[in-house]
Amino acid sequence: MRDSTAGFTFGALALRPGGSGVQTYIRELLRYVPDLLAPAATTALVQSDAVGELPPGMRAITRPVAGGARRAIYGAAPLRASVFHGLDVDLPLAGPAATVATVHDLSVIDMPSASSRFRAAGENILVRRALRRADVLIAVSQFTADRIAAIAGRTAHVVELAPAVWARPPSGADIERVRAAHDLPEQFVLQVGTVEPRKNVALVAAAAEKLQIPFVLAGGGSRGPNAPASAIGLGYVDVEDLPGLYAAATVTAYASYYEGYGLPPVEAMACGGAVVASSVGALPEVVGDGARLVPSDDIDDWVTAIAPLAHDASARAELTRAAIATMRPITWERTARATVDVYRREGISP
Q1: What is the distance between the alpha carbons of residues 157 and 140, in angstroms, rounded to a whole number?
Q2: How far apart are CA 182 and CA 49, in angstroms?
Q3: Which residue among 105, 215, 342, 343 is least enclosed by CB atoms within 10 Å?
């Protein structure tokens, strides 16, 4: 592990083949950044099975496939680099001349109960070390920047994320194809994402049940024991089907307790989905006027927010138009340019 690089090295050990969320951020940022940094060389520190996720021409430094504590050890191993940008707070203990860290959220500090005790303790150490050691901090939302200021007393540059490149309004034919492929009901409330305590899936299921509308759940754990009994679990859904799924849904709902950004609602909006989301964390600043926000986790408030969209096609159409318009100017190229602007403002160069 005595790799030495000039130019910009990106810590991308969180990148997984086909992954979403943070993986989308890493994949899309690295798609655009090399051209903006040329002629400086760009390198990514990745797990060995994720090399194919990198853009052509980007050099890879590989580590064995690992998760949890082992991955954290690989990320902390000394690595000599001119500039090292940790895209998910992983920073080498020594070696880089300058370091940048992207902070997606501080949920491990603000809401540790959402993870196992062991995982929360380990991630807490990683996050606090990045907040302390990075020369420059980037936050994916103003909410996260404010939490960084409150917890670490540091100022972070805000660089917002964007919908994935596949997140575009689908054709009518594509919507019907997805309906048939997944045997979807005529009306349904949808949630896409991993089933975990922070996502509050049970509340969405309860609201759908009270409205007597089927609840469709897609993503990790959607067919597992922690999924609500009333949910129609789809399991993992291919990316090519997601635009049609979002557009077919009567409502896509996210009742999260905490979000440092909220890519799934953003992607649903970009696909023409009618989104109802909890008014927590970064979601109000991220969704703008393109979604309905619910200020509580009271089931009656969620029923009240979803019902008009379920019963009034014109209200739903108006919201989806606003959603698409809100997301249209938000692109990963813009995110990449803003990231490079941070380097330049901070005087960071290889």
Answers
A1: 8
A2: 30
A3: 342
